[in-house]
Design brief:
With 235 residues, the protein is mainly α. 70% of the residues lie in helices and 0% in strands. Helix 1 packs antiparallel against helix 2 and helix 7 runs antiparallel to helix 8.
């Protein structure tokens, strides 16, 4: 149970800081308005690092259903615990998104662009092409999962630097591959906040775009599983 609670808290912190930097960069009248993609990707890097540092010793800091499923397929995580981890992660992401809305409520109220408001919760493509958007999420998550497997391997030599290196991989993937879909690479990171967007009484919020939601759910899962088989082949 402590591991499930850690995944809930860790994912909530991940979203508070991750979606927090998006809100700071995008919403009207914030101190960070107009910060741009470098600020957003850097903020997500630190969000992962902080959340993992807090919860890693308890749960392994998966904070991501794709990572949990990938680790289970890899045989280093009990399949029986997968469902509990995923429920905790999605719930944590939902609660984290609610905190972001409370924190930036005045700025959500001041913002008139529905798309920018949704972007502070969930991902979306700049050019809507479901097949290409799906492929983008598969590739980005595959590289992320390969980085996790390589960095966490006993022979990697990273040791206590592993959390820092995994977090840095988030930064690199965002800078290189985030321009198409916003690089969800995490089903909970997208679905939990998207659900919060749909439920919260956000002024002038518009659609939550659930028609797109399957892409940042199944794309990352497939990418993580592919990464496991690629890693096994390389070994």
């Amino acid at each position: 149970m402590s591991a499930y609670i850690a995944e809930f808290i860790g994912t909530a912190i991940l979203i508070i800081l991750g979606n927090g930097v998006v809100s700071n960069a995008l919403l009207a009248k914030t101190k960070g308005n107009g910060g741009g993609w470098i600020v957003i990707t850097t903020g997500w890097c630190f969000a992962v690092m902080i959340a993992a540092a807090i919860t890693g010793r308890v749960s392994g800091a998966h904070l991501n259903p794709a990572v949990t499923i990938g680790q289970a397929v890899h045989g280093v995580f009990p399949m029986a615990n997968v469902a509990g981890y995923i429920i905790a992660q999605v719930a944590g992401a939902f609660v984290g998104a609610c905190f972001v809305w409370v924190f930036y409520k005045d700025h959500f109220d001041a913002e008139t662009d529905e798309g920018l408001k949704l972007a502070c919760f969930s991902t979306g493509p700049n050019i809507r092409n479901p097949i290409n958007n799906f492929i983008s999420e598969v590739i980005a998550t595959c590289i992320f999962m390969l980085a996790i497997l390589g960095i966490s391997h006993p022979d990697s030599g990273f040791g206590p630097m592993a959390t820092f290196m995994v977090s840095t991989s988030i930064w690199g993937i965002g800078l290189s591959l985030g321009g198409t879909t916003g690089y969800a690479i995490n089903p909970a990171r997208d679905f939990g906040p998207r659900l919060a967007h749909a439920i919260l009484p956000i002024k002038g919020k518009g659609s939550s775009d659930f028609a797109y939601a399957w892409i940042p759910i199944f794309g990352p899962i497939l990418g993580a599983v592919l990464a496991v088989y690629i890693f096994k082949f390389l070994a």
